[in-house]
């Protein structure tokens, strides 16, 4: 996979003591606000034939498992000898997909750093961190100052 998995993919390849070939696939199931859209979109396909080959899909964060399940189905249809999935982080909502290799189980929230981003930011952090909810969550209705809000909407 592309973007969020690039850093972990390269570091994983360096740690393996065998020849590996890396190719990139761009998949998205997020909208502009980083909420799951419920649909997977292929943005860039791989450029190698995987038939008869052992395939390891590497992802940065497995949120719901929707993208992982879509990828497994898509790539199985191309006839690989084997196919496994590796995720640096897995969230509690990731169900219904067998993830063979998981780095860390993490609570819900937005994880950034080490290649992972929020709206294009934070990929270059050397560490990983959960983004503070006030950065990405809409404000609670209880916290809205309605007089100020009304003044802004008039």
UniProtKB/TrEMBL annotation:
- Residue ranges constituting the Phosphoribosyltransferase domain according to the UniProt record: 2-119
Please give the superkingdom of this protein's source: Bacteria
Q: Which CDD domains match?
A: PRTases_typeI (cd06223)
Q: What's the catalysed reaction?
A: GMP + diphosphate = guanine + 5-phospho-alpha-D-ribose 1-diphosphate; IMP + diphosphate = hypoxanthine + 5-phospho-alpha-D-ribose 1-diphosphate
What pathway annotation does it carry? Purine metabolism; GMP biosynthesis via salvage pathway; GMP from guanine: step 1/1
Give the transmembrane region(s). Answer: none
Classification via InterPro entries:
HGPRT, PRTase-like, PRTase_dom
Identify this protein by name: Hypoxanthine-guanine phosphoribosyltransferase
